[in-house]
Amino acid sequence: MPGEPAVLLVRIGSVPAATEEKWKRWYTDVHIPARLTKPGFRGARFFAVYEGECKYLALYELESVGALQSKAYLALRQQEASLPADSFEARAQELPGFARGVYRQVFPDTPYAIPAAEYLFLVAHDVPPGREDEFNAWYDTEHVPAMLRVPGFLSARRFRMAHPLPAASGKQSTSPRYLTLYDIADQDAVECEQFLKDRESPWSAWVRSWYTRRLRIKARRISPLAARRAAA
Question: What is the pTM of this model?
Answer without folding.
Answer: 0.93
